[in-house]
Each structure stands twice: as structure tokens, then as C-alpha cells.
Design brief:
CATH topology of the largest domain in chain B: Rossmann fold
Mean pLDDT of chain A: 81
CATH class of the largest domain in chain B: Alpha Beta
Structural class of chain A: alpha+beta
Radius of gyration of chain A: 33 Å
Distance between the termini of chain B: 25 Å
Shape of chain A: elongated
Shape of chain B: globular
Strand order of the largest sheet of chain B: 6-7-8-3-9-10
Strand content of chain B: 25-35%
Number of strands of chain B: 10
Largest sheet of chain A: 6 strands, mixed, barrel
Helix content of chain A: 40-55%
Number of domains of chain A: 3
Low-confidence stretches of chain B: none
CATH architecture of the largest domain in chain B: 3-Layer(aba) Sandwich
Strand order of the largest sheet of chain A: 2-4-10-7-9-8
Low-confidence stretches of chain A: 1-9
Number of domains of chain B: 2
Oligomer: heterodimer
């Protein structure tokens, strides 16, 4: 541009000439470097897809679960109670810090699906206007169901991955020992804002009101010894907006001033429910974000190397341009525009399709999350991140193209006049090999750049391929990776009478035993809240996030419990 | 000699160029005139190319002064010019032809020529296209114009290089052994082109050790060990002339050429 203005001509002519010049040089550079440019474009597109889809999934997941919980009427605190609750809702509602309480009746019952018995009880509910459940297909599409047909049940899609259950299968609910099973046919799926996730053992079942009444009758008719099912309720408690009590104090107050602790099965704050529900999505998003960070570095390395190779390879052409009167800055601008344009195109292409990828991921995860994540791109966050990426790449390109300014015409002319020394011999016997080696030596930087691009793309595709295996069918693999019990089979004796030596011998016949440890499952109550304590002699088995394995008078707790009880180390 | 009063475009005084310990130009004082076809001759290593690159501002002088008065009729101190000033001069006032064609490998011959016009910045796109077409016709490059440099003969590539050097209508054309890598036929063709350009008013500074090429110039300088040791006025080239050939040969004989 400077040269044009010095000539003192009309700016429009200058501008047109500059554009034409730029266009011609970009075309020329494309002719020469399309291989590496396409590679960089692919890498950046993959980076953008990965990053923006994970971000979309993370934010949409959080928003969807929150919205679903609000939609279903979950309060700041939800308490599951059993038995005769009397006027418990009224008692709680009378507290000054409580805004309102919504009571949702339910039946706790064990169940059997396709010959498999549940480890935990399920909760049977019937939908009414106060809790408007949303129905979905197993593939993640919304479904319109006006009324649940008698004899049918709607379940969480997560049960597909846990019990391999399909529509048409029959679930037998165990209500009492004396002919007290009640069979219902699976008619479809519903979005469960809390127990939907496959990370929850307890599952909700939506049944017809008449079926619910019939089941309740069976439960009430059975005497205490016979009864397998129990009547219960969920109390959705909403804290008053003017209340300044912490979640723990709010819960303590409810416990102290009402009889709720007499009936409480368990309770969860909204945040805890959210963290349970989002566990799998957060793991996947975290994995994708970490992968994106690596990919970002890879893009930088590949682009940097490719630019170095190009500067080396096109040095002669750059010198010619300088001799013709182009400034180093202008030449740099051309390369900056070429690579910047390609990177920008990749980023925008990735961003465009990130929503669809996030949607597909959300649909793919439906059997793990148990609910449909409504994908909505976080526009502001995406814009900020995009801006950050563009600035980082721009700064990087600016630095890497700085070499162009140092290309000196005279040095290159002298180099060309003298020619490069050839160090590799051409032998008749190994003619093809020697020619190939010479070509490799002359264009080594270019070949290294191509090698890097190919290698990183191959690694990415391999990781993508492995991810399918790693996630496993219906996300089971993902669950197993983050599960403490990452074994195929765990055997636990009922009592001391069980001949464990004999059992171990039988097991060893088929497969080696990886670990043996003593375990006692204890139920403990803290502030009226029931927790399950894994009492075992080897706490090294757990993935310890912070601190150390148990020693003497110490325990390990999960971060959820720590947040629930506001506990910190020591 | 074309005019009565010669207009000086370059004036160099005590020009010295040193590479490490070696003094290649040893204090040369020189004047170059507008509309002249100046030829620098001399044995290998005498400093011919070094002088050309120093005068054209491609290389910096180690010592001495060098002034240029071109299209803008203001003096530029080439020896101390900024990179910006030199860039402008290369774009708008100087043209270059080398022994090696130095064409941009990924541009066609036509694009190579047009590129120089675009870089100079003083012509409209339309003018550049028209000038390029004229030069392509003049250099007989119609068939080769859409090919890449690697796909054409050495002669075609060098003719394209000459066309590229003059498309922006430079004040002076610097040519460093432009026929050094060509066969006889192509050499003749390129020399004819330079002669035509000179006849049309183009100032040329040519470095050569080819007697045939030197015959095309009107002023011959002889360089030896970094000094100008001789100067010959030949007058304009008007075609094969035995007397002109004899004059040059006998002059060169004085330098044991």
C-alpha cells in the first residue's frame, strides 16, 4: 500500500490494484500449498466442531435439566418420605422460610424386567396437572401422550441401557409376597428430571391413575410381613425468596421444627440433583473440551510448521516480489490472509455444524442422561470463545509470518546463483530410491508439515474410533470408567457361612480375581439424612480427588456429600 | 548518444563495497545517463554484478555516495535510502532482469507480467492489461502466456522476464547477464528486445561478459579489480556493423580480453 500512495495516484486505482495483486498471489499460493492448507482447514474445523459442540452440550445440558426440574415443579429441596405422613406438608409450609410445598404421592416397589431383578426400589407415580411430565421416544424425539393407557408404564430411557428394556416388555412390580406382583407393559419413555440419569439406581415409573390406585390397594391390603411395596411421597419444598438461610440451615430448620425426620427416606438439594443428572454430560463435555485444548495446540504446531516450510519453499518467490517492489509487510499480509482465511473458514464451519453435532450427541446420550437435552447454542459464550480463538490464531500467525520480513533479496539471489550443494549421490542400482531421498531432502520442511498434519488427523480419527468403544453401548463404557467398581463381576457373600475359598476357586477357574477386599455396607445418618457408608479395609481402591486414603480415625467422602454437608478436609 | 545534453540519472562518488575482508568495489565514481544503454564489462570477479546491485539499491554500499534523480525529479540518496523508499523505486522506477529468470513459479507468464504492473501502483487495471497484451505480442509469448514458468522454454521464460521488467515503464532497466543461460537463438532474441526497448527510449544498465551483448550498448564501461578502468562510446546500435564490432574488439584487446 505504501508504494502505491508514494506514487501519488488515485486511491481507488491503488485499492483495486492492491486487491487484484492480493487475489493473484492468493491464487498462486493456493496452487502450491493446497495440500497443507486443506489439512489445516480440516484440523481447525474439527477443533471448532469439538469445542463448540462440547460447550453447547455443557450449557444446554445444564439449562435443560434445570428447566425440566422447574417444569416438573422440583423445589429447592426435595424430601422423599415413606408411610403415613399426616399433615407434614402443612407443617412445613407453616415455617416462615418456606414459600410452599408440593406433595407428590408415590409407591416404592422393587421390580423385575426380562428376568432381572432390580437392586433398588423404583418409585411409581401417576401424572397429573401439578407435575406435567414430558414424553419422548427412545431416539430422542418429543412424543405427544395425552393419557397413559391402563396396564402400561412409561420409563426413563436410561433403563434401556441398564436393563435392555424395550417398549412392549413387561415390568413386574413386587408389591406383596402373596401374589402381589403387578405387571405393566412398557409403552414408552418420559423425561425424568431427577432419577432419569443412568447414574441413579432408583428409577421412576409413570403409570395410569387406575393402575396406581390398584397397586396402592395391594400395598395397603398386605400386612407388614407380606408387604414389599410402600406408600410414600415426594415433598418439593420451595424456600421463600426473602429467606437468607443457607441450604443446610434451611434443611436443619425443617428437621428441627417438624416431624419430617421421622418419615424421611432421603433428601436432595436442587444443586445435588443437578450435579447427579449432569454427571455424564459433564464428563463427556470435559473430555471433549480437553480434547479440543490438545487439538488447539496441534493446530498451532501444524500451522507453525507449515508456515515455516512455506517461507522456506517460497523464499525465492518472495524475493522476486520484493525485487518487483512489494514490501515485506505486503507479502506477509498475503500469507496472513491466506492462512487466516482458512482458519476463519474452519472455525465458522465448525461453529455452524456444532449445534447439530451437540444435538446428535444429546440424542445419543439419552439412554444415559434419561432425558432429552434441548440444544440451544450459548451465543454470547460462543461469540466470546470464537473471538478468543480468532485473536489467538491471529497473534500466532502474526508472529510466525514475521520471518517473511527478514527475507533478503540479495542473499537469495546469491544463493540461487551459487545453487544448493547436493549431498546425496544418485546410484544406478538404487535410482528410484536415491531420487526419492533427494526429493525428501530438498523438501524436508514441507514433508514434515504434511507428515504432522497426516499424523494428527490419523490420531484424531483413531481417538474418534476408540471413543465409540470407550463410550460403549448406551454409554456403559463411560459409566464404567468413572465407576469405582470397574470390574466385570463383583462377588459379595451374604454372611460368614458362605465358603468364600470354594467360590474363589470356582471363579479362578474362569478368570483371575483382580482384587479382594473386605466390605461392609453400613447405613449412617447425619443430621437426619441417610447415607450409605462403604466400610472397607482398602480405600486405595477409590479414585481419590483430594487428600489421601483412610488412616486410623478418618473417612473418605464424596464431593457431593462434602457440598451437601458443607464439609472440608480435616 | 541520443541527445545533445545528457541528463544524469545516477551519480555515484567513491563507491566502496566490501564483503568481509574483500573490497569488491574500490572507490568507483560513476555517472549514468537517461536514455543510455550502458554496458558494464569485465572479467569474472571484477565487481560488475556488485556494481549493478549497488547502483540499483538491491545491495547497500559500504562507503561512498550514490544519488538518483528519476520520474519524480527529486534526488534520492540510494546509499542511505530507507527500505520504504527503495521499495517504491523497485516498484515504480526500476526494472530488473537476471541471468536466472526469477519468475514466480506459481504464476503463469501473463500473471507474472501483470503482477509487476499491479505492484507499481501507478497504472489502472485496464492500462496494465493493455500493456501486458502489447508486451506479450512484442515478446511473442501468445502461446506460452498461460503456462507456468516450469512449462516453457528458457527463451520464453527470459522474454517474459524482460516483459515483466518493463511493464511498469521503469526509468531504468537493470540487466545482469540476461543471456548468460540462453542458447544462441534465444540470446539473439533477447538482445533484439533490449535493443528495441532502448530505441523506444528505455535507459538500460547491462552487465555482461558477452561481446555480442555489449555491442548493443552505446556506452561501455570496463571494470577490473573493483575499478572502472575504461570507457568507450559506441553510439546507438543500428544493426550488424563490422566497424562497430572491430572498434569494440580492439578496445577490449587493450584489457587483454
Amino acid at each position: 500500500m505504501e508504494t502505491c500512495f508514494l506514487a501519488g495516484r488515485i486511491p481507488l486505482v491503488v485499492w483495486v490494484n492492491c486487491m487484484k495483486k492480493c487475489q493473484m498471489l492468493l491464487k498462486a499460493a493456493w496452487r502450491k500449498q493446497k495440500g497443507s492448507i486443506c489439512g489445516i482447514f480440516l484440523l481447525v474445523t474439527v477443533l471448532s466442531l469439538c469445542l463448540f459442540s462440547s460447550l453447547t452440550l455443557y450449557v444446554s445440558g445444564r439449562q435443560s435439566v434445570k428447566a425440566e426440574m422447574e417444569y416438573l415443579g422440583f423445589g429447592d429441596l426435595t424430601i422423599w418420605i415413606n408411610g403415613d405422613r399426616g399433615n407434614l406438608s402443612g407443617e412445613i409450609e407453616n415455617l416462615s422460610d418456606v414459600e410452599r410445598v408440593v406433595c407428590q404421592s408415590l409407591i416404592f416397589a422393587g421390580y423385575e424386567i426380562n428376568g432381572r431383578y432390580s437392586d433398588n426400589e423404583g418409585q411409581l407415580l401417576y401424572p397429573d396437572s401439578s407435575v406435567p411430565y414430558r414424553f419422548i421416544t427412545g431416539e430422542g424425539e418429543e412424543l405427544s401422550v395425552s393419557e397413559i393407557a391402563p396396564g402400561t408404564v412409561y420409563i426413563s430411557p436410561a433403563m434401556k441401557s441398564i436393563y435392555d428394556v424395550e417398549t412392549g416388555d413387561i415390568i413386574q412390580f413386587e408389591l406383596s409376597r402373596q401374589d402381589g406382583t403387578y405387571g405393566l407393559t412398557v409403552a414408552g419413555y418420559f423425561a425424568d428430571g431427577f432419577m432419569g440419569s443412568s447414574m441413579m439406581d432408583m428409577k421412576s415409573f409413570l403409570v395410569n391413575r387406575e393402575d396406581y390406585a390398584a397397586m396402592k390397594e395391594i400395598v395397603l391390603a398386605a400386612d407388614k410381613v407380606d408387604a414389599l411395596g410402600r406408600e410414600g411421597a415426594m415433598l418439593h419444598i420451595f424456600q421463600d425468596s426473602e429467606s437468607d438461610l443457607s441450604a443446610l440451615d434451611f434443611y436443619k430448620q425443617i428437621q428441627d421444627r417438624t416431624d419430617v425426620s421421622l418419615y424421611t427416606e432421603f433428601s436432595y438439594r436442587q444443586e445435588s440433583i443437578l450435579s447427579y443428572m449432569l454427571l455424564l454430560q459433564n464428563i463427556l463435555s470435559g473430555f471433549l473440551i480437553a480434547f479440543s485444548a490438545v487439538l488447539f495446540l496441534v493446530c498451532m504446531i501444524v500451522t507453525g510448521h507449515s508456515l515455516s516450510a512455506v517461507v522456506e519453499q517460497d523464499k525465492k518467490d518472495m524475493v522476486v516480489l520484493k525485487i518487483l517492489g512489494m514490501s515485506g509487510k505486503e507479502i506477509r499480509k498475503v500469507y496472513f490472509l491466506l492462512y487466516g482465511g482458512v482458519i476463519l473458514a474452519g472455525l465458522f464451519l465448525g461453529l455452524t455444524f456444532a449445534g447439530r453435532i451437540a444435538g446428535s450427541l444429546a440424542k445419543g446420550l439419552i439412554t444415559s442422561t434419561g432425558m432429552l437435552v434441548l440444544v440451544q447454542r450459548p451465543l454470547l459464550l460462543c461469540a466470546l470463545l470464537l473471538m478468543g480463538l480468532i485473536l489467538s490464531f491471529a497473534a500466532f500467525l502474526f508472529l510466525r509470518t514475521g520471518k517473511i520480513l527478514t527475507v533478503a533479496p540479495m542473499e537469495t539471489i546469491r544463493e540461487t546463483a551459487g545453487g544448493k550443494r547436493v549431498r546425496t549421490a544418485i546410484r544406478r542400482k538404487f535410482l528410484e530410491w536415491d531420487i526419492a531421498m533427494r526429493e525428501l531432502c530438498f523438501g524436508k520442511k514441507n514433508y514434515i508439515a504434511l507428515f504432522l498434519i497426516a499424523a494428527f488427523l490419523a490420531v484424531f480419527l483413531a481417538v474418534l474410533g476408540r471413543m465409540g468403544t470407550w463410550l460403549g453401548p448406551n454409554g456403559e463404557g463411560l459409566m464404567n470408567v468413572f465407576s469405582v467398581a470397574d470390574h466385570d463381576l463383583g462377588v459379595q457373600p451374604f454372611n460368614k457361612e458362605v465358603p468364600m475359598d470354594e467360590i474363589e476357586r470356582v471363579i479362578e477357574w474362569y478368570s483371575p480375581i483382580r482384587e479382594t477386599y473386605e466390605l461392609a455396607m453400613e447405613s449412617v445418618t447425619v443430621n437426619g439424612q441417610e447415607y450409605e457408608a462403604n466400610v472397607l479395609n482398602d480405600t486405595d481402591w477409590f479414585h481419590i480427588l483430594k487428600g489421601r486414603a483412610c488412616e486410623g480415625n478418618s473417612i473418605l467422602i464424596t464431593d457431593t456429600v462434602a457440598s451437601e454437608l458443607q464439609l472440608s478436609m480435616s | 548518444m541520443k541527445g545533445k545534453m545528457k541528463e544524469i540519472i545516477f551519480q555515484g562518488t567513491d563507491m566502496i563495497k566490501t564483503f568481509e575482508e574483500t573490497k569488491v568495489l574500490q572507490g568507483i565514481s560513476l555517472e549514468l545517463y537517461k536514455d543510455d544503454f550502458t554496458v558494464i564489462m569485465g572479467p569474472s570477479g571484477s565487481g560488475k554484478s556488485t556494481l549493478l546491485y549497488a547502483v540499483s539499491g538491491m545491495d547497500r554500499l559500504s562507503e561512498g555516495q550514490l544519488f538518483y534523480r528519476g520520474k519524480r525529479s527529486e534526488m534520492t540518496d540510494i546509499a542511505h535510502a530507507t527500505e520504504k523508499e527503495l521499495t517504491y523505486l523497485r516498484a515504480a522506477e526500476f526494472g530488473f532482469v537476471f541471468q536466472s529468470t526469477h519468475l514466480i513459479s506459481s504464476l503463469t507468464l501473463e500473471e507474472n507480467i501483470r503482477m509487476a504492473g499491479l505492484i507499481c501502483g501507478s497504472m489502472s487495471e485496464k492500462e496494465i492489461r493493455r500493456k501486458t497484451d502489447v508486451l506479450i505480442h512484442q515478446m511473442r509469448l501468445e502461446k506460452a502466456k498461460d503456462r507456468l514458468p516450469a512449462q516453457v522454454s528458457g527463451g520464453e521464460a527470459q522474454r517474459a522476464a524482460v516483459a515483466r521488467a518493463v511493464v511498469a515503464e521503469p526509468e531504468i532497466l537493470f540487466a545482469d547477464e540476461p543471456t548468460g543461460a540462453l542458447n544462441k537463438a534465444n540470446t539473439e532474441e533477447v538482445l533484439n528486445l533490449l535493443t528495441t526497448l532502448y530505441a523506444e527510449g528505455q535507459s538500460i544498465l547491462l552487465v555482461t561478459h558477452d561481446r555480442e551483448a555489449a555491442l548493443r550498448g552505446n556506452r561501455i564501461l570496463y571494470l577490473e579489480d573493483g575499478f572502472i578502468v575504461g570507457e568507450l562510446e559506441l553510439g546507438s546500435y543500428l544493426g550488424k556493423d563490422r566497424e562497430r564490432e572491430w572498434k569494440l574488439a580492439s578496445w577490449l584487446e587493450g584489457f587483454r580480453w
